[in-house]
Amino acid sequence: MPTPRVAAIHDISGFGRCSMTIIMPALSVMGVQCCPLPTAYLSTHTGGFEGNTFLDLTDQMERAAAHWRELGLRFDAVYTGFMGSCGQAALAADCIRTFKRQENLAVVDPVMGDHGRLYRTYTPEMCAAVADMAAMADVITPNRTEAALLLGTDYGALRLDRAEDCRCWARALSLRGRRSVVLTGASAEPGRAGAVCFDRDTGRTELVSAPLVPGQFHGAGDLFAAVLTGALVRGRELAEAAQLAADFTSQCAERTLAQDLPRREGIDFEPLLWRLGQVMA
Ligand code: PXL
Asked: Does 245 have pLDDT greater than 90?
């Protein structure tokens, strides 16, 4: 099998593991080539650090995508995440239009917020642009906060602690079955957390879970979506890919918790990457 190739449209945050500093190593160890199309360079992520720098790379993105198009590059997936502005979300949507084929995947992680709140730099206009981009996706990976925003539903009302509710929300997010959904933060069994998956190819809705690790871990959502994307382009079914992502994210969160590391430094995944490599070998 040729090495699958993913175009990753995310920011690079120099410190505080998230986005590209998680996505690139995770995809590489899974035997997937990651081609970064960075949206911005930040000195740190925007959660838990004050005064981060922000170098907007929108201009470069446009030129890099044009060059890739000229070269006739093909990708097994176009995978998008954190956006720095409305313009960037529109440009990322253009990249999906440019590189999307019948046989490849657009995976949109509609990064907007967590724990019921928007990330510091997100505005309602940006959320609308992210929702427009997500409408073009084959697969979306919202957390509970992002699902509520996409559905225009109150966060408190979008409960994910009963299996039947989880299934309903996942189906509601599928745009009448047009896109697959992996909704994270589902916790229908005590002591376990994971995701509910609506697979548009089979019409089935399944819950996957792994041991719940209490607390909030920066970058956990990015790690989950990256492993899911890697597994999908390596040919795994949606629920199987989500199970792998839930297992690995839970193991890394457990390790971070056990060491009592500062949460803003991000989920401590590097020492466990070899396990991900082993699963995918
Ligand atoms: O993990 C999502 C994320 C990605 N990139 C940046 C962020 C965040 C969340 O805070 O600030 C720059």
From this structure: yes
